Amino acid sequence: ITYYDGYVYCGTRSSESSFYYGFQVNSDNYWQSVGGSFYWAQAVVYDEGILYGDTNGVLTYHDLKSDRIISQVTLDGGISSGVAIYNQNIYIASKAGTLYQLEIKQDQLQIKNTLTLSGVEVSSSSTIANQRLYIGSKAKGNFYAGGYIECVDLNTFKLIDSIKVEGNVQSSPLVYFNVLYNFSSVFKRMKLH
Q: In this structure, which of 34, 76, 82, 122 has its CB flanked by the most CB atoms within 10 Å?
């Protein structure tokens, strides 16, 4: 759930049809947009719209107060991670294990770069600190194959570190006093670069 300027934004997950909603607080006014399931995907307000992804791999840039979809782009896999913003760039990962760097030009979402992560099934929302992006994922293989915490330099958009952990990393990293914390099946700690 995301709140901004008198509106609450959230999505639903259903086997029949799923919707993304914008509810005006203290009012009967709302908008809805149909799409793939909105499962775990955290939304973020950007400029005059809200960005959110769905399990069909569609990243949507939607007007904040009306049912108008401003722009959409389809990624290489479903989206269960959240959107992050840094220096006017948009970052989101797909379940296929691809990290995307996008921008909005003339109200259109455009892919600038992609980076293949070590893991797949990304449902961790990224954290940005010190010009670096931190994100978790699941290792390839079955559910118990482990996972990764990865670090991407946002100036070069290159992977600079990848730490294998014992569990599928579905939580979002937290950066605090130059230490990165993340919970998977085992508590892990690594120093920032």
A: 122
Cα 42 from Cα 84, distance rounded (Å): 9
Check: pTM over 0.85? Answer yes or no: yes
Q: How many residues in total does the chain contain?
A: 193
Report whether 91 contacts 85 (CB < 8 A). yes
Q: Tell me the per-residue pLDDT of 129-150, one tens digit each, with 9 for 90 and over.
A: 889 999 999 898 887 888 998 9
Sheet holding 158-165, edge to edge: 127-129, 132-138, 147-153, 158-165
Max CA pair span of the chain: 49
Handedness of CA 41, 42, 44, 50 (dihedral sign): positive
Element (H, E) at 85: strand 84-86
CB 11 within 8 A of CB 30: no
Least Cα distance to 73 among 56, 59, 84 occurs for: 59
